[in-house]
Structure formats: C-alpha cells, structure tokens
TrEMBL record:
Domain Cellulase Ig-like intervals: 62-142
Residue ranges of every copy of the Glycoside hydrolase family domain listed in the record: 153-608
Record PROSITE patterns: GH9_2, GH9_3
EC number: 3.2.1.4
Residues of the active site: H539, D587, E596
InterPro entries per UniProt: 6-hairpin_glycosidase_sf, 6hp_glycosidase-like_sf, Cellulase_Ig-like, Glyco_hydro_9, Glyco_hydro_9_Asp/Glu_AS, Glyco_hydro_9_His_AS, Ig-like_fold, Ig_E-set
Provenance organism: Dactylosporangium roseum
Protein name: Endoglucanase
Record's catalysed reaction(s): Endohydrolysis of (1->4)-beta-D-glucosidic linkages in cellulose, lichenin and cereal beta-D-glucans
SUPFAM superfamilies per UniProt: E set domains, Six-hairpin glycosidases
Length: 616
C-alpha cells in the first residue's frame, strides 16, 4: 500500500499527482495509507483518528489478487491469480523501484467454486524483505501495491476497536476525539422522540418504562439489541483477556483514554451498563429476565442522525436468549473488572447470577423471527448454546460447582461446536473457547482444549483448500455477514495458537486475513480505509456520505458484512442476480444485506486483528 505522511492539503495533492506508476495496472491516482491521517472522502477533518484517505470510486481491475494492506515479513505471503492457463505462470515480486526481488512459478488450482473463476496460487512466503509499495506481477499483469511490514496490523487493532465510540448512543460524540465524526448525543431526553430515558414496553407486554440510555447502536440502524450486544462486548473483553498487557498498551480514541482501566474495557463498560439496564426490575413478574431489544416502532429512512430519530421507541418482550447473553457477558465482565473496579465487578456478577436463574425459570421464551419491524428480529429458538455459554462464564468467574455441573450436563458440552461459524445466534463456541483458554478446574478441560484445536485444524484445512485462502466454505451459498463468520473461524485458529504455540495456526490466521483485504474474487478490501479498493459505503443512517456528501463515510477500520448469496435487499437482487457466492457483494449503502456495518462484525475484526497485531 502506498503511504503518504501527514501533509497539508496542498502537499497531499502534489504527492498524489506524483505517484509511482504501477506497470500494467495504470492506477489513475495514488492512495494514502491507513495511518496517513488524511481526510476521508466524507469530509472528515485532518487528524489522526478515524479519517481515511480519499479513494477514487473506480479502481482498474487486475487478475492478481493480493492483501492490499500488507503481509508480515515473517508470515505467509500468498496471492491468487485469475487465469485459464493450465500450466504454471511465472511470477515476479517487484520492490518500489521496480526491481525484481523474488520470482517463481504459480500453482494452477483450476475452477474455484466460490467464485466461478479459474485460479492459480502464488506463494512468495520465502521472501523476507520489508518495505512499502511492492507489487506482484504475473503473466505481465501487476497487483495493486502492498507493504511487507511487521507492523502491518498495528493500526487496525486500534481502529477496529475505536469504531465503537461513534456507535455510542446517549453521549455526544466529540469531534476532537473522532475528527469528522462529531455529532449530538442520540436518544437522550431532549431528542424528538424523547430518547431512551423512559421507554415503554410493547403494548400488553408490561406496564413499566425503563431508562435504557447508552449502549452501542447495533449497526446502521438505531436499534439496540441485547442479543448481539452480548457477543460483541464479549469479544472486546476476550481481546483484553487473551493479552491484558497488550490491551493495556493499546490507546483507543475514546474519552476515557488514559485512566487506569484499559481502554478496551472502558469501551466494553459502555455496553455492559446498557445490558444491565435492559434487565427486568425486581418486583416485576419476569424480574431478572432481559428485554430482547429496544428500537423504533417503524423503520426510519437513510440518512437519519441518531439525535433526529422521530420514531417512538419501544422495549420488546424479554427472551431467554437475551437473558443468557446478559448472564454470560456480565459474568465475564465481573471477571475482567475485578482488579479495576471491585464494586462494579460485584454488581455485574449479581446481575449475571440473577439473569441465569431467571433464564432457568423461563427456559423457552423465544424471540420470534417475525418481530422485524423498526428493528432487526434477532430471533432464536434454540438457546442450549446460550445456556452453555452463560454457565461456562459463570463457572470460570466463580468456580462454583453448580455452574460446572450445568456445563458438564449440557448436551452442547461434548458436541462439535465448530462444525459451523459461531455468531450472535450460535454462541456455544464463546463458552468453549473461554473454557479452553482461561484458567479453570473443569475435570475434562484437556478434552475441551483438544476440541478447540480440532476445530482449528478443520478451519486450517479450509484455508489451505480454498484458492483465495478464506477460512470459510459453507455448504451452499455465503451467509449474511460471511466476513464476520470467517473472522470468527479465525478466532478459533488464533485460540489454537494460544493453546499450542504451533506456528501453523498463527500462519493460518494471517492467510485467512488476506481474503478480507483484497485477496478475493472481487479484488475488494472489506475494511474501510485499508487497501486501495476498500468498502466505504456501508449501510448506515449517519455515515451516509453516499447519499449526502456532507456526511462522513464509516470510520477507518469498519468491516462490511460481505458477500451474501441470498440477495436479501433490492440493490443486491437487482444487481447481483445469479452471482457465485463470493461475488454477491456490492459497496452500496442501500445493500444492507451485503454491506452493513455491525458491532458484532467489528468485534470479530477487533479480536482477530489485535491477535495479529500482538504477534509482532
Ligand atoms: O446479522 C444478522 C443476520 O445474521 C440475520 O440473518 C439478519 C436478518 O435477521 O439480521 C442481521 O442483523 C441485523 C439486525 O437484525 C438489525 N441491525 C443490523 C443487523 C446487521 O444487518
């Protein structure tokens, strides 16, 4: 990736004009690096946080697909080339000056089912040099430029976590902290709909109101969902738990930075506080349960600033899944906050225990798939995995035999939970991964650890079998948020590295990441501000630059959901008909089924990118 230093606007334009020409793929304009501090296309101010460099809408295509951000010098380095050639093709790796520094022959891989393309794989892992603006040339065609840089992922760890601050509800977003992203507090008492200070229940479901201010907006909508808040905040806390020291050193762009609590936990607390507020108060019939979600009674259009939302807000009924999300996240929170804020840790543990007991008393209150007006449904009619996750977190935190018994008795405990990607609906892996990696005395812990390594081996096999190296090969098409699903598969591979120290797992995570940054069928980086051709029009009501040039694009480090074969929105169905799974994506703000941004997808990105950042 071409990097430019932080420059004045005039100097930046001059630098852009004087860009290095890349043979065979004549780029019309240069691209500034993720850490350049240049303004985003959406009018973000100059500054080092959040903004990303202006990128042209059209990037000339190249059949040579690389990780457009970069490769670690001591890591695997693979590229995929689209070519019908049956024989190996000669490849050359060129440095910034155009000098050939390595060469070899590609490996023909034939037809790739996920893309419908004939492919070759190039492996230039043995080259260990460092520098920026390398290109890979195959058969006379050049890739987009990339870096070979031990710090290639450092900034991403920070950006993917700093994404959460401007997703916050109930607080003014400071333009000093997030240049270009400042906005009024959303859903406070003085906003048009009265905000989230006194939100009533759905008619007939209860007669109280709750103050449910705060938390993160789920995605491009203004809804706040306990199911989905749970996995998102858990992954932030897990990124802290896997390496507290590294987390402590990682300063985020948030108001609380600099305190004794690590920034990632300050951010997590913003959501944990909201989850606590969603718990049914004492004295009510369903005391201890958690409301499934809170959102508008009707969908609002795009763009709509959170502070301008005119729709009535409503608490949807409690559900067992939400209650167990609260129990699991609060139990984990009690553990990670114990050394920083004892009173808060105790409060979280009390709420977690109460929620868990309430879920046991009401084990089948399922949120229906049909409840999707004004907000997402997040329906879930199988909560055995949520019970397992919550019991696991409570056990790890308390060591209490009661929870160990529930873990061991769960049908999920011995099941293969890595036969699919984990996500907001399938949460067993969250419990399994923590049981494997965090200290506890579960009698069959060794078997638990082996199950994680076996899951990782399965995903590694997929990485090596796929022509594009992605950690994802579902039966049938690609799901909604395929990008997050493959990141969660990589989180399992990362855990196997932590458990075994075997380098093949670290290398598998790195290879799997290449897909997200451009080594894919669309030559697309799915992370805003990272790579030459990067997603920047993700579906959002306030990062709606595509609809209103005065508004910003999503902040640097925002993941797009990614290819979704089911084409569930109008833009996707009109423009992507007949697409092969990997091709079912469009960087259009109206394609919410392929191109939304969501807290649980960025939490997956944050978990894996901090793992990778910590490798150097
Ligand atoms: O991520 C969710 C995906 O797994 C579901 O298939 C989809 C339809 O129910 O909903 C997705 O979640 C959306 C939520 O319902 C509302 N906020 C935006 C979320 C991401 O698109």
């Amino acid at each position: 990736m071409v990097r430019l230093p932080v420059l004045s606007r005039k100097a930046r334009l001059a630098a852009i004009a004087a860009v290095v020409a890349v043979p065979a793929v004549a780029l019309p304009i240069a691209f500034a690096g993720r850490d350049s501090g240049l303004p985003g296309t959406g009018g973000a101010n100059d500054g080092s946080a959040y903004a990303f460099p202006a990128t042209p809408d059209q990037i000339p295509d190249t059949p040579v697909r690389v990780n457009q951000v970069g490769y670690l010098p001591d890591g695997p380095k693979r590229a995929t080339v689209i070519s019908d050639a049956q024989q190996p093709l000669r490849w050359e790796l060129k440095d910034k000056a155009g000098k050939v520094v390595a060469s070899g022959a590609s490996e023909p891989r034939g037809m790739d089912d996920s893309s419908g393309q004939n492919t070759h794989v190039v492996d230039f892992s043995s080259y260990r040099g460092t520098g920026n603006t390398y290109t890979l040339e195959v058969d006379g065609k050049a890739s987009l430029p990339f870096d070979l840089d031990p710090k290639a992922y450092q900034q991403l760890g920070i950006d993917s976590l700093s994404f959460f601050y401007p997703q916050r509800s109930g607080i003014e977003i400071s333009n000093d902290i997030a240049p270009g992203y400042g906005r009024k507090a959303g859903h406070t008492a003085d906003t048009p709909n009265g905000g989230d200070t006194k939100v009533p229940c759905a008619p007939g479901s209860c007669d109280y109101t709750l103050d449910v201010t705060g938390g993160w907006y789920d995605a491009g909508d203004h809804g706040k969902y306990v199911v989905n808040g749970g996995i998102s905040v858990a992954q932030l806390m897990s990124s802290y738990e896997r390496s507290p020291k590294a987390a402590q050193a990682r300063a985020l762009h948030i108001p609380e930075t600099g305190g004794k609590t690590p920034d990632v936990l300050d951010e997590a607390r913003w959501e944990l506080d909201f989850l606590l507020k969603m718990q049914v108060p004492d004295g009510e019939q369903l005391a201890g349960m958690a409301h499934h979600k809170i959102h508008d009674v009707a969908w609002t259009g795009l763009p709509t600033d959170p502070a301008a939302d005119p729709q009535q807000r409503q608490l949807r009924p409690p559900s067992t899944a939400a209650t167990l999300n609260l129990a699991a996240a609060a139990a984990q929170g009690a553990r990670v906050f114990a050394q920083y804020d004892k009173a808060y840790s105790e409060k979280l543990l009390g709420a977690a225990k109460k929620a868990y007991a309430a879920a046991k008393a009401h084990p089948t209150m399922y949120a229906p798939d049909s409840d999707g007006v004004g907000g997402g449904a997040y329906g879930d009619a199988n909560v055995s995995d949520e019970f397992y996750w919550a019991a696991a977190e409570l056990y790890i935190t308390t060591g209490d035999k009661q929870y160990a018994g529930d873990v061991s008795d769960s049908t999920v405990h011995k099941a293969d939970v890595f036969d699919r990607a984990f996500d907001w609906q399938n949460t067993a892996a969250l419990g399994r991964l923590d049981l494997a990696t965090i200290d506890n005395k579960l009698p069959d812990r060794e078997r638990v650890r082996e199950s994680v390594v076996a899951g990782a081996d399965r995903y590694l096999k997929i990485v090596s079998e796929q022509a594009y190296g992605q950690a994802y090969a579902p039966n049938g098409g690609y799901d909604w948020a395929s990008n997050a699903q493959m990141l969660n598969n990589l989180a399992v591979v990362a855990a196997a590295f932590d458990l075994t120290g075997e380098h093949k797992y670290r290398d598998g995570v790195l290879s799997g990441m290449d897909y997200l940054f451009g080594r894919n069928a669309l030559n697309q980086s799915y992370v805003t501000g990272y790579g030459e051709k990067a997603s920047k029009n993700q579906h959002s009501r306030w990062y709606a630059h595509q609809l209103d040039p005065k508004l910003p694009n999503p902040p640097r480090g925002t993941l797009a959901g990614g290819p979704n074969s089911q084409l569930q929105d109008e833009v996707a169905s009109a423009q992507l008909r007949g697409c092969k799974p990997q091709m079912c994506y469009i960087d259009d703000i109206k394609s919410w089924s392929t191109n939304e941004l969501t807290i649980n997808w960025n939490s997956a990105l944050a978990y894996v990118s901090t793992f990778v950042a910590d490798q150097t």
